[in-house]
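Let us practice reading a record.
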Amino acid sequence: MKDSEYFKFDGFTVVPAVIFVFVMWLVYWLEVKFHFRFTDNGIRPQQFSGLQGVFFSPFIHSGLNHLWSNSLPCFILITALSFFYRRVSLWVLVGGMLLTGVFTWFLGRPSYHIGASGVVYMLTAFLFFKGVFTGHYKLLSLSFLVAFFYGSLIWYVLPIKEGISWEGHLSGAIAGLFLAIVTRNKLPEKRKYVWESEQYKEEEDPFMRHFDENGNFIESIDEEE
């Protein structure tokens, strides 16, 4: 498979991101419009009833600022996931979301944990580490971009700011790293040049005639010779 066939942008590329962010905003609209309170549907660690938050918590936010701060990163990172890892993108997104929730349920403090920030950390960790592990130049470039734009997030896996679920952030980072290790994704074949072929013979390459026995380049050669 060539790079042009593997890295292909189409309508499906943005669909998962649009749906995910749309559901986040829909849940918030329902809270505001009908005065619902979905916080109790978040993750409540070490309580059986709190496991429901594994499925619901990424779509529940405490306010408009909280929702907006997660919307743009989710859209960008999910789109990047769909573009660069199309074959496993949905599995990583859904599986990573559930893993992040389960880890948060085990590690979190006894309070309600809500918001998609854990998913943001999961996606960031996955995209960074997977690119490093694969070594493909385009995926490695994505790793560097993720590190550049979201590298500062690493500090918030620690309890340095009151009122944020650092346990959710840490859980997302662990889930992303785990998925980067276990996920198998078929990569495009590495481009091979003529001289990398097993059938290549240096003495039959007309270009090599422009070099003398000392490796010096000869700009013009006698065609008859």
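A brief commentary: The two ends are 42 Å apart (CA to CA).
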